Amino acid sequence: MGFPLSKTYLTSSLNLRFQLRSRANSRMGFLPCTTTVLGNMFLIIVYGYLMYLAATYLSYGSELLLEILGPGIVGGLFLPMLGALPDAMLILVSGLSGTAETAQSQVSVGMGLLAGSTVMLLTVIWGSCIIVGRCDLHDSVAIDGTNTKGFNLKESGVSTDIWTCYAARIMAISVIPFLIVQLPQALKFDSGRQLAVLIALIISLLMLISYCVYQVFQPWIQRRRIAFAKHKHVISGILRHLKKHALGRLLTDDGEPDTEIIRKLFETIDENHDGGLSPSELRALIIGIRFEEIDLDQDDAVSKVIADFDTSRDNLVQEDEFVEGIMKWINEAKQTGGAYLESNAGTIKFIDHFHQQTKREHALLGSEEQSDEVVENVENPRWISIKAVLMLLLGTLIAAAFADPLVDAVDNFSEATSIPSFFISFIALPLATNSSEAVSAIIFASRKKQRTASLTFSELYGAVTMNNVLCLSVFLALIYVRGLTWDFSSEVLVILIVCVVMGAFASFRTTFPLWTCSVAYILYPFSLGLVYVLDYVFGWS
Hints:
Blueprint: H1 7-28, H2 37-69, H3 73-83, H4 85-94, H5 100-132, E1 135-138, E2 141-142, E3 156-159, H6 162-173, H7 176-186, H8 193-245, H9 259-269, E4 276-277, H10 279-289, H11 298-309, E5 317-318, H12 319-337, H13 345-365, H14 368-371, H15 381-417, H16 421-427, H17 429-433, H18 435-445, H19 450-482, H20 489-507, E6 511-513, H21 516-536
Antiparallel strand pairs: 1-2, 1-3, 3-6, 4-5
Helix pairs in contact: 1-15, 2-3, 2-15, 3-8, 4-5, 4-15, 4-19, 5-16, 5-18, 5-19, 5-20, 5-21, 6-19, 6-20, 7-8, 8-13, 8-19, 9-12, 10-11, 12-13, 18-19, 20-21
Family: Belongs to the Ca(2+):cation antiporter (CaCA) (TC 2.A.19) family.
Transmembrane segments: 29-52, 64-85, 105-132, 195-217, 384-403, 423-445, 457-480, 492-512, 519-538
Main location: membrane
Protein backbone atom coordinates (compact mmCIF):
# COMPACT_ATOMS: atom_id res chain seq x y z
CA MET A 1 0.00 0.00 0.00
CA GLY A 2 1.52 3.35 -1.06
CA PHE A 3 2.04 6.47 0.96
CA PRO A 4 -1.33 8.30 1.17
CA LEU A 5 0.02 11.70 0.05
CA SER A 6 1.40 10.44 -3.26
CA LYS A 7 2.25 12.71 -6.16
CA THR A 8 -0.79 11.51 -8.06
CA TYR A 9 -3.08 12.27 -5.14
CA LEU A 10 -1.63 15.77 -4.66
CA THR A 11 -1.92 16.54 -8.36
CA SER A 12 -5.55 15.43 -8.55
CA SER A 13 -6.38 17.35 -5.36
CA LEU A 14 -4.82 20.55 -6.73
CA ASN A 15 -6.64 20.09 -10.04
CA LEU A 16 -9.95 19.68 -8.21
CA ARG A 17 -9.38 22.85 -6.19
CA PHE A 18 -8.36 24.72 -9.34
CA GLN A 19 -11.53 23.57 -11.11
CA LEU A 20 -13.66 24.64 -8.16
CA ARG A 21 -12.02 28.07 -8.05
CA SER A 22 -12.30 28.47 -11.84
CA ARG A 23 -15.94 27.44 -11.80
CA ALA A 24 -16.67 29.82 -8.93
CA ASN A 25 -14.93 32.70 -10.71
CA SER A 26 -16.66 32.03 -14.03
CA ARG A 27 -20.13 31.66 -12.53
CA MET A 28 -19.99 34.43 -9.92
CA GLY A 29 -18.38 37.00 -12.21
CA PHE A 30 -17.81 40.17 -10.18
CA LEU A 31 -19.09 38.58 -6.96
CA PRO A 32 -16.58 37.51 -4.28
CA CYS A 33 -15.52 33.89 -4.11
CA THR A 34 -13.46 31.81 -1.70
CA THR A 35 -12.56 28.20 -0.93
CA THR A 36 -12.09 28.58 2.84
CA VAL A 37 -14.62 27.40 5.40
CA LEU A 38 -15.14 30.81 7.03
CA GLY A 39 -15.24 32.56 3.68
CA ASN A 40 -17.96 30.30 2.32
CA MET A 41 -19.88 30.50 5.57
CA PHE A 42 -19.82 34.28 5.27
CA LEU A 43 -21.01 34.07 1.65
CA ILE A 44 -23.85 31.71 2.60
CA ILE A 45 -25.00 34.20 5.26
CA VAL A 46 -24.78 37.18 2.87
CA TYR A 47 -26.46 35.47 -0.08
CA GLY A 48 -29.01 33.88 2.25
CA TYR A 49 -29.92 37.32 3.57
CA LEU A 50 -30.29 38.60 0.01
CA MET A 51 -32.63 35.68 -0.79
CA TYR A 52 -34.57 36.58 2.36
CA LEU A 53 -34.90 40.15 1.03
CA ALA A 54 -36.09 38.77 -2.31
CA ALA A 55 -38.75 36.66 -0.56
CA THR A 56 -39.79 39.69 1.54
CA TYR A 57 -40.16 41.96 -1.51
CA LEU A 58 -42.14 39.30 -3.37
CA SER A 59 -44.43 38.78 -0.38
CA TYR A 60 -44.99 42.51 0.17
CA GLY A 61 -45.56 43.17 -3.53
CA SER A 62 -48.04 40.30 -3.69
CA GLU A 63 -50.02 41.69 -0.75
CA LEU A 64 -50.17 45.13 -2.36
CA LEU A 65 -51.36 43.61 -5.63
CA LEU A 66 -54.02 41.66 -3.75
CA GLU A 67 -55.28 44.90 -2.19
CA ILE A 68 -55.89 46.37 -5.63
CA LEU A 69 -57.13 43.38 -7.61
CA GLY A 70 -58.47 41.13 -4.86
CA PRO A 71 -58.64 37.33 -4.97
CA GLY A 72 -59.45 35.34 -8.07
CA ILE A 73 -56.81 35.18 -10.79
CA VAL A 74 -54.27 37.27 -8.85
CA GLY A 75 -54.82 35.61 -5.50
CA GLY A 76 -55.23 32.14 -6.95
CA LEU A 77 -52.71 32.05 -9.77
CA PHE A 78 -49.91 34.59 -9.43
CA LEU A 79 -49.49 34.91 -5.67
CA PRO A 80 -48.84 31.21 -4.92
CA MET A 81 -46.30 31.07 -7.76
CA LEU A 82 -44.56 34.24 -6.61
CA GLY A 83 -44.35 32.89 -3.08
CA ALA A 84 -42.58 29.77 -4.34
CA LEU A 85 -40.32 31.70 -6.74
CA PRO A 86 -37.15 31.92 -4.53
CA ASP A 87 -37.24 28.16 -3.85
CA ALA A 88 -37.91 27.38 -7.51
CA MET A 89 -35.04 29.65 -8.58
CA LEU A 90 -32.57 27.96 -6.23
CA ILE A 91 -33.70 24.51 -7.38
CA LEU A 92 -33.34 25.51 -11.00
CA VAL A 93 -29.80 26.90 -10.76
CA SER A 94 -28.64 23.96 -8.62
CA GLY A 95 -28.51 21.77 -11.70
CA LEU A 96 -28.72 24.13 -14.65
CA SER A 97 -25.11 25.08 -15.36
CA GLY A 98 -21.87 23.14 -15.65
CA THR A 99 -21.39 19.59 -16.89
CA ALA A 100 -23.85 16.78 -16.17
CA GLU A 101 -21.48 15.47 -13.49
CA THR A 102 -21.33 18.87 -11.77
CA ALA A 103 -25.10 19.24 -12.01
CA GLN A 104 -25.63 15.79 -10.52
CA SER A 105 -23.40 16.78 -7.62
CA GLN A 106 -25.07 20.14 -7.03
CA VAL A 107 -28.66 19.03 -7.56
CA SER A 108 -28.70 17.64 -4.02
CA VAL A 109 -28.73 21.29 -2.89
CA GLY A 110 -32.05 21.72 -4.69
CA MET A 111 -33.50 18.56 -3.17
CA GLY A 112 -32.26 19.60 0.28
CA LEU A 113 -34.00 22.96 -0.09
CA LEU A 114 -37.22 21.33 -1.30
CA ALA A 115 -37.31 18.83 1.57
CA GLY A 116 -36.10 21.32 4.18
CA SER A 117 -38.63 23.97 3.18
CA THR A 118 -41.53 21.50 3.36
CA VAL A 119 -40.41 20.07 6.70
CA MET A 120 -39.77 23.49 8.26
CA LEU A 121 -43.19 24.86 7.24
CA LEU A 122 -45.06 21.86 8.64
CA THR A 123 -43.05 21.40 11.83
CA VAL A 124 -41.24 24.40 13.34
CA ILE A 125 -43.48 27.11 11.87
CA TRP A 126 -46.71 25.11 12.28
CA GLY A 127 -45.96 24.37 15.93
CA SER A 128 -44.96 27.97 16.63
CA CYS A 129 -48.27 29.22 15.19
CA ILE A 130 -50.13 26.89 17.57
CA ILE A 131 -48.24 28.34 20.56
CA VAL A 132 -48.60 32.05 19.71
CA GLY A 133 -52.18 31.70 18.43
CA ARG A 134 -53.55 29.66 21.35
CA CYS A 135 -56.87 30.68 22.92
CA ASP A 136 -59.03 29.15 25.64
CA LEU A 137 -60.93 26.07 24.45
CA HIS A 138 -64.62 25.74 25.31
CA ASP A 139 -66.53 22.69 24.07
CA SER A 140 -63.52 21.91 21.83
CA VAL A 141 -63.69 25.33 20.13
CA ALA A 142 -61.21 28.18 20.64
CA ILE A 143 -62.79 31.39 21.95
CA ASP A 144 -61.42 34.42 20.07
CA GLY A 145 -59.16 36.74 22.03
CA THR A 146 -59.10 34.73 25.28
CA ASN A 147 -55.96 33.35 26.91
CA THR A 148 -56.63 32.65 30.57
CA LYS A 149 -55.48 29.00 30.47
CA GLY A 150 -51.85 29.88 29.77
CA PHE A 151 -49.93 26.87 28.49
CA ASN A 152 -52.53 24.27 29.44
CA LEU A 153 -51.96 21.44 26.97
CA LYS A 154 -55.62 20.43 26.70
CA GLU A 155 -57.66 23.55 27.55
CA SER A 156 -55.90 26.01 25.23
CA GLY A 157 -55.33 25.77 21.51
CA VAL A 158 -56.34 26.96 18.04
CA SER A 159 -59.50 26.49 15.95
CA THR A 160 -59.71 26.77 12.16
CA ASP A 161 -62.53 26.60 9.62
CA ILE A 162 -63.42 23.75 7.26
CA TRP A 163 -61.60 25.39 4.34
CA THR A 164 -58.33 24.87 6.19
CA CYS A 165 -59.10 21.15 6.35
CA TYR A 166 -59.61 21.17 2.58
CA ALA A 167 -56.24 22.89 2.13
CA ALA A 168 -54.58 20.18 4.25
CA ARG A 169 -56.19 17.43 2.16
CA ILE A 170 -55.00 19.03 -1.06
CA MET A 171 -51.50 19.23 0.41
CA ALA A 172 -51.57 15.51 1.25
CA ILE A 173 -52.76 14.64 -2.27
CA SER A 174 -50.00 16.75 -3.82
CA VAL A 175 -47.34 14.16 -2.83
CA ILE A 176 -48.55 11.79 -5.60
CA PRO A 177 -45.77 12.83 -8.08
CA PHE A 178 -43.16 11.90 -5.44
CA LEU A 179 -44.64 8.40 -5.24
CA ILE A 180 -44.63 8.00 -9.02
CA VAL A 181 -41.04 9.12 -9.53
CA GLN A 182 -39.89 6.87 -6.70
CA LEU A 183 -41.59 3.68 -7.96
CA PRO A 184 -38.81 2.39 -10.29
CA GLN A 185 -36.20 2.79 -7.55
CA ALA A 186 -38.44 1.06 -5.02
CA LEU A 187 -39.05 -1.83 -7.46
CA LYS A 188 -35.38 -1.99 -8.56
CA PHE A 189 -36.45 -1.17 -12.11
CA ASP A 190 -33.56 1.05 -13.22
CA SER A 191 -34.49 1.20 -16.91
CA GLY A 192 -37.80 2.89 -16.08
CA ARG A 193 -36.39 5.81 -14.10
CA GLN A 194 -36.44 8.39 -16.89
CA LEU A 195 -39.96 7.38 -17.92
CA ALA A 196 -41.10 7.70 -14.32
CA VAL A 197 -39.54 11.18 -14.13
CA LEU A 198 -41.44 12.21 -17.28
CA ILE A 199 -44.77 10.81 -16.04
CA ALA A 200 -44.30 12.44 -12.63
CA LEU A 201 -43.45 15.76 -14.35
CA ILE A 202 -46.64 15.65 -16.44
CA ILE A 203 -48.81 14.78 -13.43
CA SER A 204 -47.11 17.45 -11.33
CA LEU A 205 -47.82 20.09 -13.98
CA LEU A 206 -51.45 18.97 -14.27
CA MET A 207 -51.82 19.16 -10.50
CA LEU A 208 -50.26 22.65 -10.53
CA ILE A 209 -52.79 23.83 -13.13
CA SER A 210 -55.67 22.20 -11.24
CA TYR A 211 -54.58 23.77 -7.97
CA CYS A 212 -54.35 27.23 -9.52
CA VAL A 213 -57.81 26.86 -11.10
CA TYR A 214 -59.19 25.79 -7.72
CA GLN A 215 -57.54 28.80 -6.06
CA VAL A 216 -59.03 31.13 -8.68
CA PHE A 217 -62.58 29.87 -8.11
CA GLN A 218 -62.29 29.07 -4.40
CA PRO A 219 -63.50 32.51 -3.15
CA TRP A 220 -66.63 32.14 -5.28
CA ILE A 221 -67.18 28.58 -4.01
CA GLN A 222 -66.66 29.75 -0.45
CA ARG A 223 -69.15 32.59 -0.76
CA ARG A 224 -71.76 30.20 -2.16
CA ARG A 225 -71.22 27.73 0.68
CA ILE A 226 -71.46 30.48 3.31
CA ALA A 227 -74.64 31.86 1.72
CA PHE A 228 -76.16 28.38 1.79
CA ALA A 229 -75.16 27.94 5.45
CA LYS A 230 -76.78 31.29 6.32
CA HIS A 231 -79.95 30.21 4.52
CA LYS A 232 -80.09 27.05 6.63
CA HIS A 233 -79.48 29.19 9.71
CA VAL A 234 -82.52 31.32 8.84
CA ILE A 235 -84.59 28.13 8.45
CA SER A 236 -83.47 26.71 11.81
CA GLY A 237 -83.96 30.05 13.58
CA ILE A 238 -87.51 30.53 12.29
CA LEU A 239 -88.43 26.92 13.09
CA ARG A 240 -87.13 27.30 16.66
CA HIS A 241 -89.09 30.54 17.02
CA LEU A 242 -92.30 28.93 15.73
CA LYS A 243 -91.75 25.85 17.90
CA LYS A 244 -91.41 28.08 20.95
CA HIS A 245 -94.66 29.94 20.20
CA ALA A 246 -96.46 26.68 19.39
CA LEU A 247 -95.35 25.20 22.73
CA GLY A 248 -93.40 22.52 20.90
CA ARG A 249 -96.41 21.09 19.04
CA LEU A 250 -95.43 21.42 15.38
CA LEU A 251 -95.95 17.68 14.77
CA THR A 252 -99.02 15.49 15.03
CA ASP A 253 -99.06 12.24 16.96
CA ASP A 254 -97.91 10.32 13.87
CA GLY A 255 -94.88 12.60 13.39
CA GLU A 256 -96.25 14.71 10.50
CA PRO A 257 -96.33 18.55 10.48
CA ASP A 258 -99.44 19.85 12.25
CA THR A 259 -101.08 22.14 9.66
CA GLU A 260 -103.61 23.57 12.15
CA ILE A 261 -100.87 24.76 14.48
CA ILE A 262 -98.92 26.20 11.53
CA ARG A 263 -102.04 28.11 10.34
CA LYS A 264 -102.51 29.61 13.81
CA LEU A 265 -98.86 30.71 13.77
CA PHE A 266 -99.49 32.34 10.39
CA GLU A 267 -102.36 34.35 11.85
CA THR A 268 -100.08 35.49 14.67
CA ILE A 269 -97.43 36.77 12.23
CA ASP A 270 -100.02 38.36 9.87
CA GLU A 271 -100.41 41.59 11.82
CA ASN A 272 -102.92 43.32 9.48
CA HIS A 273 -104.87 40.05 8.91
CA ASP A 274 -105.02 40.51 5.14
CA GLY A 275 -104.25 36.84 4.47
CA GLY A 276 -100.70 37.43 3.25
CA LEU A 277 -97.30 38.08 4.82
CA SER A 278 -95.62 41.16 3.38
CA PRO A 279 -91.82 41.71 3.37
CA SER A 280 -92.22 44.15 6.29
CA GLU A 281 -94.08 41.54 8.38
CA LEU A 282 -91.43 38.93 7.60
CA ARG A 283 -88.71 41.43 8.52
CA ALA A 284 -90.43 42.06 11.86
CA LEU A 285 -90.43 38.28 12.44
CA ILE A 286 -86.71 38.01 11.68
CA ILE A 287 -85.84 41.02 13.84
CA GLY A 288 -87.80 39.44 16.68
CA ILE A 289 -85.84 36.20 16.37
CA ARG A 290 -82.49 38.00 16.87
CA PHE A 291 -79.92 35.94 15.01
CA GLU A 292 -77.06 36.68 17.39
CA GLU A 293 -74.78 33.88 16.19
CA ILE A 294 -74.27 35.22 12.69
CA ASP A 295 -73.93 38.58 11.00
CA LEU A 296 -77.25 38.31 9.15
CA ASP A 297 -78.46 40.71 6.48
CA GLN A 298 -82.15 41.02 7.36
CA ASP A 299 -83.23 42.06 3.86
CA ASP A 300 -81.34 39.09 2.44
CA ALA A 301 -83.06 36.76 4.95
CA VAL A 302 -86.47 38.13 3.98
CA SER A 303 -85.65 37.58 0.31
CA LYS A 304 -84.65 33.97 1.05
CA VAL A 305 -87.92 33.29 2.89
CA ILE A 306 -90.01 34.82 0.10
CA ALA A 307 -88.06 32.86 -2.54
CA ASP A 308 -88.75 29.62 -0.63
CA PHE A 309 -92.44 30.27 0.13
CA ASP A 310 -93.84 32.59 -2.54
CA THR A 311 -94.80 30.16 -5.32
CA SER A 312 -97.26 32.67 -6.86
CA ARG A 313 -94.48 35.26 -7.26
CA ASP A 314 -96.64 38.16 -6.02
CA ASN A 315 -94.10 39.15 -3.32
CA LEU A 316 -96.54 38.04 -0.61
CA VAL A 317 -96.59 34.77 1.32
CA GLN A 318 -100.17 33.50 1.37
CA GLU A 319 -101.46 31.20 4.12
CA ASP A 320 -101.29 28.04 2.01
CA GLU A 321 -97.80 28.98 0.81
CA PHE A 322 -96.70 29.53 4.40
CA VAL A 323 -98.05 26.13 5.47
CA GLU A 324 -96.40 24.35 2.54
CA GLY A 325 -93.12 26.17 3.12
CA ILE A 326 -92.99 25.40 6.86
CA MET A 327 -93.86 21.74 6.15
CA LYS A 328 -90.98 21.58 3.68
CA TRP A 329 -88.60 23.13 6.21
CA ILE A 330 -89.71 20.74 8.97
CA ASN A 331 -89.15 17.73 6.72
CA GLU A 332 -85.70 19.07 5.81
CA ALA A 333 -84.87 19.55 9.49
CA LYS A 334 -86.08 16.01 10.26
CA GLN A 335 -83.79 14.59 7.58
CA THR A 336 -80.80 16.56 8.82
CA GLY A 337 -81.46 16.58 12.55
CA GLY A 338 -82.82 13.05 12.88
CA ALA A 339 -86.45 12.00 12.57
CA TYR A 340 -88.39 11.70 15.82
CA LEU A 341 -91.99 10.46 16.00
CA GLU A 342 -92.87 11.99 19.37
CA SER A 343 -95.23 14.93 18.88
CA ASN A 344 -93.87 17.21 21.60
CA ALA A 345 -90.39 16.35 22.81
CA GLY A 346 -89.49 15.03 19.37
CA THR A 347 -90.12 18.40 17.77
CA ILE A 348 -87.87 20.10 20.29
CA LYS A 349 -85.13 17.53 19.82
CA PHE A 350 -84.75 17.48 16.08
CA ILE A 351 -85.23 21.22 15.56
CA ASP A 352 -82.69 22.02 18.27
CA HIS A 353 -80.35 19.43 16.80
CA PHE A 354 -80.81 20.97 13.34
CA HIS A 355 -80.14 24.45 14.77
CA GLN A 356 -76.95 23.34 16.52
CA GLN A 357 -75.77 21.61 13.36
CA THR A 358 -76.32 24.71 11.20
CA LYS A 359 -74.49 26.86 13.78
CA ARG A 360 -71.55 24.46 13.73
CA GLU A 361 -71.53 24.35 9.93
CA HIS A 362 -71.53 28.14 9.71
CA ALA A 363 -68.69 28.36 12.24
CA LEU A 364 -66.63 25.82 10.28
CA LEU A 365 -67.11 27.73 7.04
CA GLY A 366 -65.89 30.95 8.64
CA SER A 367 -67.17 34.44 8.14
CA GLU A 368 -68.13 35.91 4.83
CA GLU A 369 -65.56 38.63 5.37
CA GLN A 370 -62.89 35.96 5.10
CA SER A 371 -64.23 34.76 1.76
CA ASP A 372 -64.33 38.22 0.26
CA GLU A 373 -60.89 39.71 0.67
CA VAL A 374 -61.27 42.57 -1.79
CA VAL A 375 -60.32 45.81 -0.12
CA GLU A 376 -62.62 48.55 -1.34
CA ASN A 377 -61.88 52.26 -1.52
CA VAL A 378 -58.11 51.81 -1.68
CA GLU A 379 -56.45 55.21 -1.58
CA ASN A 380 -54.24 56.07 -4.54
CA PRO A 381 -54.56 52.69 -6.33
CA ARG A 382 -52.26 53.74 -9.17
CA TRP A 383 -49.31 54.43 -6.85
CA ILE A 384 -49.94 51.17 -4.96
CA SER A 385 -50.01 49.27 -8.26
CA ILE A 386 -46.69 50.81 -9.34
CA LYS A 387 -45.18 50.07 -5.93
CA ALA A 388 -46.41 46.45 -6.09
CA VAL A 389 -44.92 45.89 -9.55
CA LEU A 390 -41.58 47.45 -8.49
CA MET A 391 -41.45 45.23 -5.39
CA LEU A 392 -42.18 42.13 -7.47
CA LEU A 393 -39.55 43.06 -10.06
CA LEU A 394 -36.94 43.82 -7.41
CA GLY A 395 -37.61 40.56 -5.58
CA THR A 396 -37.43 38.57 -8.81
CA LEU A 397 -34.17 40.23 -9.89
CA ILE A 398 -32.51 39.63 -6.50
CA ALA A 399 -33.60 35.98 -6.51
CA ALA A 400 -32.34 35.50 -10.07
CA ALA A 401 -29.02 37.24 -9.43
CA PHE A 402 -28.02 35.56 -6.16
CA ALA A 403 -29.55 32.09 -6.36
CA ASP A 404 -26.64 30.68 -8.37
CA PRO A 405 -23.87 32.18 -6.14
CA LEU A 406 -25.69 30.87 -3.06
CA VAL A 407 -25.75 27.33 -4.47
CA ASP A 408 -22.04 27.64 -5.32
CA ALA A 409 -21.26 28.84 -1.77
CA VAL A 410 -23.15 25.89 -0.28
CA ASP A 411 -21.34 23.47 -2.60
CA ASN A 412 -17.94 24.96 -1.80
CA PHE A 413 -18.66 24.96 1.93
CA SER A 414 -19.63 21.31 1.64
CA GLU A 415 -16.35 20.54 -0.12
CA ALA A 416 -14.32 22.45 2.47
CA THR A 417 -15.96 20.87 5.53
CA SER A 418 -16.89 17.42 4.15
CA ILE A 419 -20.46 18.07 5.36
CA PRO A 420 -22.96 16.80 2.77
CA SER A 421 -24.47 19.71 0.86
CA PHE A 422 -27.93 18.24 1.39
CA PHE A 423 -27.81 18.92 5.13
CA ILE A 424 -26.61 22.49 4.66
CA SER A 425 -29.41 23.21 2.18
CA PHE A 426 -31.93 21.29 4.33
CA ILE A 427 -31.24 23.39 7.43
CA ALA A 428 -29.83 26.73 6.26
CA LEU A 429 -31.49 27.61 2.95
CA PRO A 430 -35.13 27.31 4.15
CA LEU A 431 -34.27 29.84 6.86
CA ALA A 432 -33.51 32.31 4.08
CA THR A 433 -36.33 31.56 1.65
CA ASN A 434 -39.07 30.99 4.26
CA SER A 435 -38.15 33.58 6.89
CA SER A 436 -40.56 36.28 5.73
CA GLU A 437 -43.34 33.72 5.41
CA ALA A 438 -42.59 32.38 8.88
CA VAL A 439 -42.57 35.82 10.51
CA SER A 440 -45.83 36.91 8.83
CA ALA A 441 -47.51 33.59 9.72
CA ILE A 442 -46.53 33.85 13.39
CA ILE A 443 -47.56 37.53 13.62
CA PHE A 444 -50.89 36.74 11.95
CA ALA A 445 -51.53 33.77 14.25
CA SER A 446 -50.79 35.92 17.32
CA ARG A 447 -54.02 37.87 16.71
CA LYS A 448 -55.79 34.92 18.42
CA LYS A 449 -58.86 34.69 16.19
CA GLN A 450 -60.31 31.75 14.30
CA ARG A 451 -60.31 33.74 11.08
CA THR A 452 -56.62 34.68 11.26
CA ALA A 453 -55.68 31.17 12.41
CA SER A 454 -57.55 29.69 9.45
CA LEU A 455 -55.77 32.01 7.02
CA THR A 456 -52.39 31.32 8.62
CA PHE A 457 -52.59 27.53 8.42
CA SER A 458 -54.19 27.64 4.97
CA GLU A 459 -51.20 29.68 3.77
CA LEU A 460 -48.77 27.15 5.28
CA TYR A 461 -50.55 24.22 3.60
CA GLY A 462 -50.72 26.20 0.35
CA ALA A 463 -46.98 26.92 0.46
CA VAL A 464 -46.21 23.21 0.92
CA THR A 465 -48.58 22.35 -1.93
CA MET A 466 -46.71 24.75 -4.21
CA ASN A 467 -43.44 23.10 -3.14
CA ASN A 468 -44.90 19.72 -4.06
CA VAL A 469 -46.18 20.77 -7.47
CA LEU A 470 -44.38 23.90 -8.74
CA CYS A 471 -40.92 23.39 -7.21
CA LEU A 472 -41.06 19.65 -7.88
CA SER A 473 -42.04 20.34 -11.50
CA VAL A 474 -38.95 22.53 -11.90
CA PHE A 475 -36.81 19.85 -10.27
CA LEU A 476 -38.23 17.01 -12.41
CA ALA A 477 -37.85 19.06 -15.60
CA LEU A 478 -34.22 19.67 -14.66
CA ILE A 479 -33.62 15.96 -14.05
CA TYR A 480 -35.31 14.94 -17.31
CA VAL A 481 -33.84 17.58 -19.65
CA ARG A 482 -30.26 17.18 -18.38
CA GLY A 483 -30.48 13.40 -18.16
CA LEU A 484 -29.61 13.36 -14.45
CA THR A 485 -30.26 10.43 -12.13
CA TRP A 486 -33.13 10.49 -9.65
CA ASP A 487 -31.56 9.10 -6.49
CA PHE A 488 -33.32 10.71 -3.55
CA SER A 489 -35.12 7.87 -1.76
CA SER A 490 -34.55 9.07 1.80
CA GLU A 491 -35.45 12.67 0.98
CA VAL A 492 -38.69 11.61 -0.70
CA LEU A 493 -39.54 9.39 2.27
CA VAL A 494 -39.12 12.32 4.66
CA ILE A 495 -41.37 14.55 2.53
CA LEU A 496 -43.99 11.79 2.31
CA ILE A 497 -43.96 11.12 6.06
CA VAL A 498 -44.24 14.78 7.08
CA CYS A 499 -46.89 15.71 4.48
CA VAL A 500 -49.03 12.63 5.08
CA VAL A 501 -48.80 12.79 8.90
CA MET A 502 -49.54 16.51 9.14
CA GLY A 503 -52.03 16.37 6.25
CA ALA A 504 -54.01 13.55 7.89
CA PHE A 505 -53.72 15.29 11.26
CA ALA A 506 -55.17 18.55 9.91
CA SER A 507 -57.67 17.09 7.42
CA PHE A 508 -60.16 15.70 9.91
CA ARG A 509 -60.09 18.16 12.79
CA THR A 510 -60.59 21.89 13.14
CA THR A 511 -59.38 22.34 16.73
CA PHE A 512 -55.77 21.82 17.78
CA PRO A 513 -55.03 21.78 21.52
CA LEU A 514 -51.64 23.07 22.60
CA TRP A 515 -50.22 19.53 22.92
CA THR A 516 -50.44 19.11 19.12
CA CYS A 517 -47.46 21.44 18.62
CA SER A 518 -45.26 18.75 20.19
CA VAL A 519 -46.14 16.42 17.28
CA ALA A 520 -44.85 19.02 14.83
CA TYR A 521 -41.69 19.81 16.80
CA ILE A 522 -40.79 16.12 17.14
CA LEU A 523 -41.09 15.60 13.38
CA TYR A 524 -38.28 18.06 12.57
CA PRO A 525 -35.34 16.29 14.28
CA PHE A 526 -36.92 12.96 13.34
CA SER A 527 -36.82 13.94 9.65
CA LEU A 528 -33.23 15.12 9.79
CA GLY A 529 -32.11 12.01 11.66
CA LEU A 530 -34.00 9.71 9.29
CA VAL A 531 -32.25 11.15 6.23
CA TYR A 532 -28.86 10.81 7.91
CA VAL A 533 -29.45 7.19 8.94
CA LEU A 534 -30.85 6.12 5.58
CA ASP A 535 -28.20 7.91 3.50
CA TYR A 536 -25.04 7.50 5.54
CA VAL A 537 -25.73 4.34 7.55
CA PHE A 538 -27.76 2.23 5.13
CA GLY A 539 -26.50 3.97 1.95
CA TRP A 540 -29.87 4.56 0.30
CA SER A 541 -28.63 7.36 -1.95
